[in-house]
Structures
1.
Amino acid sequence: MKSPITVAVTGAAGQIGYSLLFRIASGSMFGPDQPVALRLIEIEPALPTLNGVVMELDDCAFPLLHSITPTADLNEGFSGVNWALLVGSVPRKAGMERKDLLSINGKIFTGQGQAIEKNAASDVRVVVVGNPCNTNCLIAKSNAPGIPSERWFAMTRLDENRAKSQLAAKAGVHNTAVTNLTIWGNHSATQYPDFTNAKINGKSVTDVISDQAWLEGEFISTVQQRGAAIIKARGSSSAASAANAVVDTVKSLTTPTPAGDWTSVAVWSDGSYGVEKDLITSFPIRTTDGTSWEIVQDLPVNEFSQSRIDATINELKEERDAVKELGLI
Ligand code: NAX
């Protein structure tokens, strides 16, 4: 039996947590022969709810679930973790300015970054899901300078999956036929789902879908606004699909990417594609050996794509400047 991988999940009593924990414990994230130890982090008032989730995890009798540690203590929660999945954050409420949101969440992610640096395993990798996830990731990373830059990620995989599904539906093919889909930039309504480099059954999307106006208009806005559409339909925000995207993200970072393809995740910018260094930006990413990854280089970026990428990068710069002004990074 392999030794367990230790995974911390913050916001474990929340909606996404309720889907995610059972997927991790069942083996969906790390494979059918890899035991996992869960460290479930919540704020104090949510511990009774978290206790109910722990009872349900117990009741599944998962063969791969080695142990469960529910806690509101960050040092205990991040102790020895190989993966830190930062899901918990405070949602934007009516009347709240973006700056207020960045300030409230900033305090959460400074503390979590510091606690991860102090307590986690030496190989820790961090995936930030809680919004605004790119900038929350930047805050946590800035507060854990001892952890190498390439170990920090923010999730744009749900956007990628949404984009693939929209393109597949339009082309009348199964979603597995859609490859090479990049989400550029911020996980927000400015993100750019890049159809120009995407493929359907190995052919350029623009050769398969001739409706350019749909690609440049409705396709992009549907992906950008999908979260809001789910809230309208369901009465609460995406949860199972978000949890699924977390599983996909970690799987993609721990297994080699299929030849010729790539995936989307926000990583620390090294200046590729002219994106300012140090911004946590979604790029096309390939994993080679299951531990290291690279940004896919030299993809063509036409004028339309460039203007979209510029818009989302500008938003990331504004968020970075705002948290800098607040002294969070
Ligand atoms: P919920 O409100 O259901 O759950 C959040 C949980 O986080 C709550 O249980 C809360 O007690 C906990 N929490 C708050 N502060 C905490 C702290 N300091 N430490 C530990 N736990 C804390 O939200 P849920 O629907 O689960 O969504 C979680 C986050 O994911 C939100 O920020 C949401 O905006 C974000 N999302 C990000 C997505 C992405 O693609 N990156 C997509 C889905 C989702 O919208």
2.
Amino acid sequence: TIPGQYYLDGVLLGSYNPPDGMKALREFDLFEDDCIVAAYPKSGQTWTLELVYLVLHHGTAYERENTARDMRTPWIEWGPVDEERLRNISNIPRPRVFKTHAIAKHLPVQLREKNVKMVFVFRNPKDVAVSYYHFYRMNAVLSRFPGTWSQFYEMFMAGNVAHGSWFDYVQEYWREFKDDKNVLFLYYEDMVKDHAGSVRKIANFLGRNLRDDVVEDIVKRTSFKTMKDNFATRAHKIPFFDENISPFFRKGNVGDWKNHFTVRQNEDFDRVYAEKVAESGFCIDFGE
Ligand code: A3P
């Protein structure tokens, strides 16, 4: 169990996403030029948020002020409804970039009404599970999970973790948005393989034409190492993270699952994956 846990439409959430916050998310006022970055936890969302943010704001005074991550790319549905916080994030300079972990049907109603752009990030679910396990261990809002990897693996496969089943989560997004020109699907593995290409892809999607030196600078500033060390992008003051247990910017590579999955877990996973998503049409690279 995690603090304040409850289920919303079958999806496990904690006290950091209480019912009134989820309702406020649904009713959140968007502008046409907002961009929402949605992802299942541990899919490379922090990285993508920073990429989108820099594509839109590189070189501006707002960007140079080095505002902390929580204000440059705020998580819409964070915490119980706090009018002041909502007002603050409503007033950040446009175009605004928002984070969400909501399942597709919990997204703001205005997303579709106003044709707001959205970026969705996929990551291979074996690495997601491993990354999530370490995050569960270090994060007090996820109970600082004291169990073993194998116990976490069972929870993950059962969808009994915060934000629910990876399988349901990504399939619902894919089904809902795969043909929507306002939604860009990105893959963590592609971003690792072709970082500059991903910057260009995002810029193209958002209608920005970036000079080569700007692309290069964005790549430099969003490298794993730079983001890990950077004041603005690291979660520098998050009191419920214990980075002595596991750092927030942990490894940032593809294939760490091979250091965790047993042969049996891997076979079990491949069988479930084949049953559940093989036909979906999105294409996950497991780094094999
Ligand atoms: P690992 O735990 O495998 O290292 P999210 O931001 O969605 O929570 O995803 C976290 C994962 O993205 C972590 O994976 C983290 O290290 C990785 N990550 C964060 N910033 C990154 C970057 N600039 N480049 C590559 N990976 C990054």
